[in-house]
Amino acid sequence: MENGKDKREILNQNYSESMNTRYCVTERYNLTFGEAVKNVKDQLDRLGLDIVAEFDVKEYLGVIMKDMPKHLILLVCDQDTAADLIANDIQMGILFPCNVTIKEIEDESVVEVSMEDTSVTWSSSLKKDVEEIAKKTKENLKKVLDNIGQTNFKL
Fold it and tell me: Counting C-beta atoms within 10 Å of the first and last residue's C-beta, which end of the chain has fewer, N or C?
């Protein structure tokens, strides 16, 4: 108990729920958290995407969340993409960098990696050029998910 308050609990999220979240693309992997973080960072680097910040959710919320699992958010960007977005819609700065999350799901051997679905999150711009940039960005981020590790396993 912190400051007289009970710690909040995390509700279990099933895989079908994770896979059907409209604003992100998600996969689960048989990897440790550390392996997943390394593989994600390696794939982002391979594609020329910059990690401009890291946010440790467990460190930030662990004091008020009960049994907070490892959870990292990477803020990912590409200078050319960012410049194209701003050139087409000056307000797009509110929606980038893109978010990539890595979460420990169960018994330290399954992680879930989610990438922002820019075709959804950037669609509020309503500009055709931004829509094309968003589609290309989503395809690029999806390549990261496709190359992190093995996904063929039973939950």
Answer: N
